[in-house]
Design goal:
Layout: H1 10-25, E1 46-50, E2 53-56, H2 57-68, H3 75-101, H4 108-117, H5 121-124, H6 133-144, H7 148-168, H8 176-187, E3 189-198, H9 199-203, H10 210-219, E4 231-240, H11 241-247, H12 252-261, E5 267-268, E6 271-280, H13 292-310, H14 315-322, E7 340-345, H15 351-359, E8 369-371, E9 374-384, E10 387-388, H16 391-425, H17 427-433, E11 439-440, H18 457-465, E12 473-477, E13 480-490, H19 502-532, H20 535-542, E14 545-548, E15 557-558, E16 562-563, E17 583-584, E18 588-598, H21 605-640, E19 644-646, H22 648-657
Antiparallel strand pairs: 1-2, 1-19, 3-14, 3-18, 4-11, 4-13, 5-10, 6-7, 6-9, 8-9, 12-13, 15-16, 17-18
Helix pairs in contact: 1-3, 1-7, 1-21, 2-3, 3-7, 3-21, 3-22, 8-21, 12-16, 16-17, 19-20
Length: about 650
């Protein structure tokens, strides 16, 4: 599907929430016997169907390639990615099926409105002007790798899915009591006195003996089962992209051939540069008729402005004074544009405007032109006939394209030839063909950096997932390709004696002991503070630091306490003078006492200002919960009804081909 998750529509958030659940489960989806085991789809190229909606192999492949593009993903991950994409498409198909079952549909008018006023507005209607059919087709092909028909079908499916969620969440109700409580929670403020004991201070007091460390090691054998992590040794050589790029040249004949073969890319349609003065007319209300009196008044005003223009008035100044076009003002600087529209092609303006702008001579000013927007006075400033950009103008751009194409071809051929040679003749002979040096590594861990390569996590993942005795392999790094062979594997193991991992044992012993002491001291401080109702005295006896905050709300941050929405949020449930229990603050623990409390009143004018926004936020939360429940229930129901069918043959082929 198109980039549905980028939608600003609220329903998209529910889809996203469902997808996040799927992503967490998709690693095991096809590893659990019986999961999604419905069969019955045997058609070649169809991986799954949902209520008759086909999910095709080529669609999955396209989306996998789009998601993987520009990423250095190990081959093993591509199989997971294919499964994840299939799960996403299945869920989208489930929603589409349910929408059709509910009798929902999307009209061509709704499609046009989405393209013109929705998320695609900037792409297809920049500055409110239609880019034209040819540019539309080209943009869809380049951005989404779809035909216009496929693209518009998918946009309609997305709009249908939004409608489904609008129906599902339509009856969301937020009681006034919830709004009031949310306002109080948000605006309650407290001042607290608090005592903190730092873990680091406790750690400094712990000096373990060898006897204690050995006993700790023996008592925690399970924790250290594979404490000595896996190591691997490999030999490899690097094929550097830059060295290959330096060998790629483009001669003038190639540039000429490309230019001749891609004339459509350099062809510019007829266009004009114009400016206008708009006197807008009111739009008729839904189901109503236009206010003719208002239209007549707008015409009379436009006629008066036209007289001033024809009398030699400054067009730009008159546009700034009279034009009601909202586009005549820069949204950032608020500077007026003098009615300037810039260059545009045929079809980018409404037909009445287009016809006049293109029929006039350079510098000519029109009479009144009426469009659905109102009355226009149009000045055609410049005209440019349709033409093809000369080769001299585009030579540099063509050279870059041709060079990149040749480099990509060379990189693919070189990497394929290199791994073939390594597998047939051995790594050393293959390296010699490319004048590359074979590097023999020491035993390394997955997180180590290799000489001549540096930190390359994805490549090291490939190294550590390569089977024993697998022979030469090839991997991608930032600078090029690496042909490598794992020569030795040292499996993870349990240390024979604690000295092998003494530093780790020491650190963990001290952390465990310090945390025990910290918890005990904090609990004792809290108990003493409650017993004597004196936090300052209890803190002094415990050796804790005492501080007092400003008045803070839930969104505030207090030194040492951290975010007041975290563990310290217990302060908002306490009355003035009350003392908390122990607070776990990460690398410290503490106790707090509320010394001042300010509770907001719903009779405050501020509540009236925030009420609607709070209600909307709560409604969105409830709608998201409803959306998630709907997705889960829908998937369960359709599976029980046998509406979800998986073509096991195609699925196995899809995942194996990417393994």
């Amino acid at each position: 599907m198109i980039k549905f998750l980028q939608s600003g529509n609220r329903a998209a958030k529910y889809i996203l929430a469902g997808f996040l659940l799927i992503l967490a489960a998709s690693m095991v989806t096809y590893l659990i016997p019986g999961f999604m085991s419905n069969t019955g789809v045997t058609e070649s190229g169809v991986v799954a169907t949902v209520g008759g909606h086909e999910i095709r192999r080529d669609e999955i492949a396209r989306l996998v390639q789009n998601q993987a593009r520009g990423q250095n993903l190990p081959p093993a991950y591509m199989s997971f990615l294919a499964q994840r994409v299939l799960q996403q498409l299945i869920q989208q198909a489930e929603i589409t099926y349910e929408g059709e079952r509910m009798g929902l549909n999307v009209s061509d008018k709704e499609l046009r409105d989405e393209l013109q006023n929705g998320n695609f507005k900037a792409m297809f209607f920049p500055e409110g002007k239609w880019i034209g059919a040819d540019q539309y087709k080209l943009a869809v092909q380049r951005q989404y790798e779809l035909t216009v028909e496929q693209f518009e079908r998918e946009v309609k499916l997305e709009l249908l899915q939004r409608k489904v969620f609008s129906v599902v969440t339509a009856n969301t109700v937020v009681p006034e009591s919830e709004v009031e409580q949310t306002y109080k929670d948000k605006n309650t403020k407290v001042k607290v006195q608090y005592a903190i004991i730092q873990l680091d201070d406790v750690l400094k007091t712990i000096k373990p003996t060898d006897t204690e460390l050995k006993a700790y090691f023996e008592a925690n054998q399970a924790r250290y089962q594979n404490a000595i992590e896996e190591k691997r040794q490999l030999k490899y050589f690097v094929l550097n992209d830059k060295e290959l790029a330096d060998k790629v040249t483009v001669d003038p004949a190639e540039i000429q051939r490309y230019y001749s073969a891609h004339q459509e890319n350099f062809r510019l349609p007829e266009r004009v540069k114009a400016r206008h003065i708009l006197i807008a007319t009111p739009q008729p209300p839904p189901g109503g008729t236009v206010d003719q009196k208002a239209v007549d008044e707008a015409r009379a005003k436009a006629q008066d402005v036209l007289k001033q223009v024809k009398a030699g008035g400054d067009f730009a100044a008159l546009a700034n004074k009279y034009s009601t076009d909202p586009g005549n003002e820069d949204p950032q600087t608020h500077a007026k544009k003098g009615g300037e529209l810039g260059w545009f092609q045929k079809g980018q303006m409404v037909s009445e405007f287009d016809k006049v702008a293109f029929s006039q001579n350079k510098g000519q000013i029109s009479d009144l032109v009426q469009t659905p927007f109102g009355f226009h006075i149009i000045q055609t400033e410049e005209k440019e006939e349709a033409h093809t950009k000369p080769l001299a103008e585009v030579r540099g751009d063509i050279e870059k394209v041709v060079k990149q194409d040749r480099l990509s071809t060379l990189l693919n051929k070189t990497s394929n030839d290199a791994i073939d040679a390594a597998q047939k003749e051995g790594l050393e002979k293959a390296a010699a063909k490319y004048h590359a040096e074979v590097v023999q590594s020491n035993l390394v861990t997955r997180t180590d950096a290799l000489p001549g390569i540096g930190p390359q996590p994805n490549f090291m993942d490939a190294v550590f997932t390569t089977a024993d005795k697998a022979g030469p392999q090839i991997g991608r790094i930032t600078a090029g390709y690496v042909v490598f062979q794992v020569t030795k594997i040292q499996p993870p193991r349990k240390p024979a004696y604690y000295e092998e991992i003494k530093d780790r044992v020491t650190t963990e012993f001290k952390n465990d002991r310090a945390n025990d002491i910290l918890r005990r001291k904090t609990q004792e401080m809290a108990d003493r503070a409650h017993a004597e109702h004196d936090l300052a005295k209890a803190a002094k006896e415990a050796g804790a630091t005492v501080k007092t905050s400003d008045l803070v709300g839930r969104a505030s941050v207090a030194p040492d306490l951290g975010s007041m929405s975290g563990p310290a949020s217990t302060a908002f449930s306490l009355k003035q003078g009350e003392i908390s229990g122990p607070l776990n603050l990460g690398r410290s623990q503490g106790v707090l006492q509320v010394v001042e409390r300010q509770d907001p009143s719903t009779s405050d004018p501020q509540f009236a200002k925030e009420r609607d926004q709070l209600r909307e936020q709560l409604a969105q939360q409830k709608q998201q919960e409803l959306g998630n429940m709907f997705l889960n229930d829908l998937s369960t129901r359709l599976e029980k009804e046998g509406k979800i069918k998986i073509n096991k043959t195609e699925m196995d082929s899809l995942t194996k081909s990417r393994g």
